[in-house]
Fold these 2 entries.
Entry 1:
Amino acid sequence: MSEYYVHPKALVETERIGAGTRIWAFCHVMSGVTVGRNCNIGDHSFVEEGVSIADNVTIKNGNCIWKGVQLKEGVFVGPRVFFTNDLYPRSGRMASVGPRYDDESWLEATVVGRGASLGAGSVIIAGNTIGEYAMVAAGAVVTHDVAPYALMLGNPARARGWVCRCGLKLFFDEGSAMCGTCGSRYRLDGGSVVYLG
Amino acid sequence: MSEYYVHPKALVETERIGAGTRIWAFCHVMSGVTVGRNCNIGDHSFVEEGVSIADNVTIKNGNCIWKGVQLKEGVFVGPRVFFTNDLYPRSGRMASVGPRYDDESWLEATVVGRGASLGAGSVIIAGNTIGEYAMVAAGAVVTHDVAPYALMLGNPARARGWVCRCGLKLFFDEGSAMCGTCGSRYRLDGGSVVYLG
Amino acid sequence: MSEYYVHPKALVETERIGAGTRIWAFCHVMSGVTVGRNCNIGDHSFVEEGVSIADNVTIKNGNCIWKGVQLKEGVFVGPRVFFTNDLYPRSGRMASVGPRYDDESWLEATVVGRGASLGAGSVIIAGNTIGEYAMVAAGAVVTHDVAPYALMLGNPARARGWVCRCGLKLFFDEGSAMCGTCGSRYRLDGGSVVYLG
């Protein structure tokens, strides 16, 4: 007996929606979609058939979550992020593309790890994994896998630092960092960030 | 006696729509628009008065097709591509812009050639022509004309290779290429790609 | 006794709207918003609670105007510009973000000065001011304050010239420029553009 909110101007064609989730005006959530608990899906968003969204996910306005995109627990999707699921898109209605779209072998997955943030208007090229708690800056274009806790900037996006689980930037000194805001501690171990608590 | 589909949540103000075309939820297609046969226009798209769209065109979600934009047969417009039609936009409501918007001399055209693909969130500066079967990568910003079959990347977009009519990358050896996927053959002739069949 | 137009497919929850303003299909303007006179808000736009928009502003389609964004008189917001108001966004539903979203200390303002233009798909990082009559090119990513009359290009955006109040490019000769289109005159004084009339 799930209790969730759907704005009267939204079009929601699934009932697999967790308690506490809110879906706002002019959204279209297709049938065959699963949305977790305590999520928020902003106005003018679209969620395609077959997508599964975990708990505590924030999806800001104007997003399209395509088949093949996996959003893990607590992900933040900024305004109008660009997901993709086809690396060589063509209009399937053209004879010259032949049988490419006869099955789903064209479909490339994207995985966005637990707690990661994707900034406004960032572009996520399909086939890549965004590590947990990574932060992709507004306007960045992600063309390869992103390490957990990495801060990514630019087109193409490059790693330019590290961020805390709470979102603030981390500064490592001899391989150790403590977040000045929330007090979480981290170790930098062979180029990877390890959360200590 | 055209047979096409309009989603009940769409607003379509023209009847000049070809057979087999589908227009999805929360779209707004204005009066004075012509849409060809067998097209698909995704949710939350807008097509402005005066636009003419050819057959077999795929328009993904959230697009705005402005007056001045020409989409030829079989074009693929990825999610929320940015078309433009004014190189020096101002709020026409300001006295300081004077008579600039009294007529349509400000309006710059964009032509997207047969079978070309525009990736998610790419930006197409008005006044340019995208050659047939070209592919603009997601997030690229096109600031000049694009050659047929060219693959364009980055901001500003640069040509970084060639693609087949089916969408896959071409590799030329002594001026000749055969697509490893569909078998089409091409010749590179003075910097231009020629389709051989 | 204000006279303004709201399209029947729009959702407008405020009555603080100036005379002559038009709000188009599938827009959502929240309660607590103030919109000035003679504005135009294109289809599929969203204006968040608490926003105040001045007179003569043009907002093209698909925009999200968040709390914290100030649009001064005569601003032009191109199609789907990316405003932001949180420099370190996280899903506030995650326990690990702690008390960050308990108050509004996370909220960063953006000010867009009188007569400025923001091109299609440009990204405006919060905490910055766009000077009056500046022009941000389509696809540019603004990461710092922008000088009045500056033309900004690229990711990150750099100043690449100056523009007239009417929108056209200015060419300075020994510190003086006259717009070839509208005849306005300017002086370049210590790196700043001064309007002479």
Note: Chain C has no helices and 25 strands.
Entry 2:
Amino acid sequence: MQLLIATKNLGKRREIEAALKDLPLDIVGLDAIPDLPDVVEDGRTFAANASKKALALARASGMLTLADDSGLVVDALGGEPGVHSARYAGPRATNDENNRHLLEALKGFTGKQRSARFVCVIAVASPAEVLFTIRGECAGTIIEEPRGKNGFGYDPLFLYPLQNLTFAEMPAAEKNRISHRAKALAQTKNELERLVKMGLM
Amino acid sequence: MQLLIATKNLGKRREIEAALKDLPLDIVGLDAIPDLPDVVEDGRTFAANASKKALALARASGMLTLADDSGLVVDALGGEPGVHSARYAGPRATNDENNRHLLEALKGFTGKQRSARFVCVIAVASPAEVLFTIRGECAGTIIEEPRGKNGFGYDPLFLYPLQNLTFAEMPAAEKNRISHRAKALAQTKNELERLVKMGLM
């Protein structure tokens, strides 16, 4: 049984492959399948976006498909940047522009008001239906100046309090052990294992 | 903002209303909306069935809609009865027939082989999309003779080991405190609260 990983991000694909390597599934990348559609991520939740992408690509490829949607949620900003994380400062915003936009939005915010969560929702679909979605979260704080060079997105502003390091200061292996995506992938592995055992794939 | 509860089971509807009563949502029953479609629950997972039902009824009613799908999962039976819980002994099977069928299937099984989980997946959809799904589980053991008169379905065979009572021996209030549906509803409440705060409804 093959599993299509619906991400163009090679780092993400490697992380997913590593997490699922013990399952009896052949992992396939988007590059292996020609003419797949581009899916517009216009859902109102991470789960809606991940589900839409997984189902569209499962239908187009005829394969079991895994997709994720993830972003940063700041409760004091009414959940923003949320599903707009990648385009918070505008449709073609860079990571730096998004980070500056976030610092601007949080100007004058202190203490608990700077609490934030990285959220990742993974959806797995067959061509017929979305089989399940799984949510992983990682809680932290938005600091006032970027720190660190690793990772991407909001990582330089996201302080993981237990280690007093930003995600951009951690080695990739360490971030991949504790991150929102790691948590979602661990549960996704269990759920896929269960479905394989039940003969549903 | 109104929330349609997509269940014909009055006991379930009361349980859901009680769990969500502190939210700023007006809860509406299926009986209030004429001409809603019957949704065929032919999905391969609880999440697929709950999502299908929530989305179909959200589209038909134009309202935010909550649906659930639930059942009993026995790992030693490859996950059965699973999504077939209500019709395990046949398309129009009674609770008693399903229970007898389960005891038959588990004949000769002992100890851990009789482990089972009740699973409940709740889906919430807008007319545009499934906003999220939440899974709740409750672990127990299938005993060899039915015990108790409360509840429904497999409750008389499902022993909750922490209290050494079957679900059918517990008062409804107690079952509703610890059950798979209670767990899913508690998380659903949090998720709905978050979406309301974010202005997504």
Note: DSSP finds five helices and seven strands in chain B.
